[in-house]
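Try it yourself: sequence plus alpha-L-arabinofuranose, in.
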Amino acid sequence: MKKIICLVAAILLLATMTSCANQPDTDIINSSSVVVGFSQLGAESSWRIANTESMEKAAKEAGFGLMMENANQKQEKQIDAIRSFIAYQVDVIVFSPIVESGWDNILNEASNAGIPVILMDRMISNSDDNLYTTYVGADFYAEGRRAGEYLIRKADTMNKETFNIFEICGTVDSTPMRERQQGFMDAIGDDPRFNVVDSICGDFLRSMGGECAELLLEKYGENMIDVIYSHNDSMTLGVLDVLEQRGIRPGKDIVLITVDGEKEAVDALKAGKINCVVQCTPDLGPAVMELVRKLKAGEQVSKITHPEEGIFCDFDDLSNPAVEGF
Ligand code: AHR
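Structure, out:
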């Protein structure tokens, strides 16, 4: 009976959404007996777009109906989407929280409705971990550590006593921002060669990455900048554009460390313009759908699932075909 209600609800939702011209990102694919409500946080980066594609493809392959809403970087829109999924009694809610705080009420509503919640990609800060069923996504702290460990290795090969580091952060109060920063700081923490001079927010956007680079160059001048650690490839590519426009050689005059592994960034690494790409896979769809399957089958699921990730860097054999972006 619940499945029939869900199916009808999915059709009604489709009718509502398609009649709403100002919601172009809303989509439903392959309505079936299992319906997953998916709130994506936005389309701010190539990583995010690849992640959305991974979710759509995996849902289709699993034969699950996917009600997807894109929140265009607005937490209120994510909350509205989750509330609509509760109203439609979806089987499972999946969402990627744009920031860590502010989810208690809506997650209590989902819990009261008996709908399991899978956090995908990002975490929430709530100490009550009963408000979600399971999390699948990167170990962002480990990513930050890998970035710092790479820098230590790189510095060992350079004839320099001190390194001025500038950090370009992702969205404030988001899990990748907080943990990539902490992991990096912990890795380089007690090494006297490193001096983190400034940290500014680029919101994971390419345009903002460029603006951050302009700001830093204006404020400090190119000679003071030894290292830029940027929390994602989109911002790094924005930085790269600005450095090249100014005749500064990225990867040579300034060490560039980035996170994600999108094709354009890996190609820039191969061209010697980026020094290190810390991997963060967007391909989380198959793991999410496997969790949905298990939950529907009444099987136990682990509280946290991290994909395996590593780094690509200028110490690697970059002609190896395994060095490839998404
Ligand atoms: O949460 C994952 C991060 O979000 C990715 O590193 C970034 O590119 C995206 O916008």
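One thing you can check immediately is this: The CA atoms of residues 12 and 217 lie 53 Å apart.
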